[in-house]
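Why run this: before we spend reagent on co-expression, it is cheaper to look at a predicted model of the complex and decide which construct boundaries make sense. The entries below are exactly what would go into the expression plan.
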Amino acid sequence: MTEEDIRAVFINELVKIAPDLDAQDIGEDERLQDDLGLDSMDILNLVAALHKAFGVSIPEPDYPKIATTRLAVSYLQEMQA
Amino acid sequence: MSKSDESIRMAPSPSRALQSDADPWADTRGMIGAPGGVINIAHEAVDRHVENGHGADQALRFLGKNGSRQVFTYSDLSEASAKFANILVSHGLEPGDAVFSLLGRGPDVYIAALGTLKAGLVFTPLFSAFGPEPIRTRMEIGNAKVLITTLQLYRRKIAKWRSEIPTLKLVLITGDVAPDDCLSLDQQMAGSSSKFTTARTGPEDPALVHFTSGTTGKPKGVVHVHNAVLYHGFSGKVALDLTPGTIFWCTADPGWVTGTSYGIIAPLVNRVTIIVDEAEFDLDRWYGIVENEQVEVWYSAPTAIRLMMRAGAEAAKPYDLSSLRFLASVGEPLNPEAVTWSEEVFGQPFHDNWWQSETGGIMIANCPGAQVKPGSMGKPMPGIQAGIMEHEGDRLRELADGEIGELALKPGWPSMMRAYLHEQARYDKCFKDGWYLSGDLTTRDQDGYFWFVGRADDLIKTSGHLVGPFEVESALLEHEAVAEAGVIGLPDETAGEIVKAYVTLNPGFTPDEDLERDIRGHTRKRLGPAVAPREVIFRNTLPKTRSGKIMRRLLKARELGLPEGDISTLETDET
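The model came back. Tokens follow.
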């Protein structure tokens, strides 16, 4: 998967969980919880969705590594490599 | 609207909350100063310690998301809250007026709460993750005169409708930048005196209003008085082992009652050092804080504890957590596995306790030193009389050990609510035969331990927050596609319960994934993620009674495969 593909899938999963967000408006460096308003249950649901989409299981201590779209895309890329 | 309608004052008749034969709480008065008969929470929490020579003791350690660390002494809090009180008075606000905060964890909420109480005004904290709708409803019911919030929250959630709240006189924005119709808190504080004579509040003067959800109708504003400080101090000491100098971390959000009673008042009255962490749950950060700050007493919630469990005992290994001397949990029942797990990882169990916005303080607890039965909420606190009741017409019948009924408490303790704002009838309904009825179903074992069974009504407990289905259904019905809505809570291993909605659609709308997302998006915008449904299910019809009421109980029983119970009132069934 290219970086662009990963980003597209990530954003798609994110707006499925938080459909109050507009996919076009999500900034690369906006923090999911502080800036985009997700709560901790949303993050758990997102982790489960990413597991399904990428086959990557993200352990609890790594949650800060998916705190923004930019961080998450690079983390997922690394995990897939 | 006249002044007396807007400010929060008590009815002249003696409150039901005070009906008891003797005052078993007289001894707790020794814990406070009450100079000249004045009982003021801010004085007892802060100024009293300064007067007694403890001004240099650490009151707060604030840990910023960015890694910053800021210490406030009791003198610092005393001066900052005096400045805040002066700001309120200089804007013509008077005792009884309502001050609302919409803030995350940080020093500002402490300064605002204590300054408000010092000036004799009434403080209401709101949860900053609420969407605009719950914020507005609560500010309307509470006749908000003042709001203190951040620039970001103001722009996102308040600015659009601010002018439609007629009572609102003053909006303070934290930091030094504020929109035209608001004032900067930093600038106001800079120009304000740090000397203030505390309002001469009496024990029964209103101090706090906490909002809690109802099954039907609007949220209820639970009124607490300054005398509550007696019970905050007492229960902090007895149930949480708070003693002068204890390093205490209450992880509750300041927007909920725990964040005030045990995040602000109880610890300060007991002269402890409070840890305030700005960030949301983050496992490594949390363990790191316990180690670095040498946290001794930790008061958290089942959702957070279950998140720690998910990460496993291994995640805690790199940290030295030996400073911890007492662990407690509140918000929803703590499952036995979490108690056992914490014994393995921390060398001691999390001690569950039980209370509500209405009770103002911990009522039933696994106190320090007592044997913990995993899964039980513990035993009634000293001075608290609890019973399990069955309703028999207009009367109550007390049940024996082992039977399931509604948990009831004999009113009379100082932090019991005194009213629901503007809702005498709803308040009266909470009392029967001299008991306060909690709405929680429980049972008591032969050793006197209480065990939570469920809610007697349709309220949903999710991540420690009480969510009223009516508020969620109302937001769903505002969506153009939704004709009817029923909202229930379903068991969830992390959050306790999650909010799930069942809807029928108006003609012309097709039930598909896009519409499901659109409806959820709409409710998240209105209500915020903590309250909005995580899932929306489409139905052709919903089960209803003859009077047209949606039978949430039946939706839930079917979802869980439980017996449907009495369905004699069912008129239209679900399809």
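Chain A touches chain B at residues 15-16, 18-21, 33-34, 37-42, 44-45, 59-61, 63-64 (CB under 8 Å). The domain at 3-80 of chain A is CATH 1.10.1200.10 (Non-ribosomal Peptide Synthetase Peptidyl Carrier Protein; Chain A). Bring this page to Monday's planning discussion.
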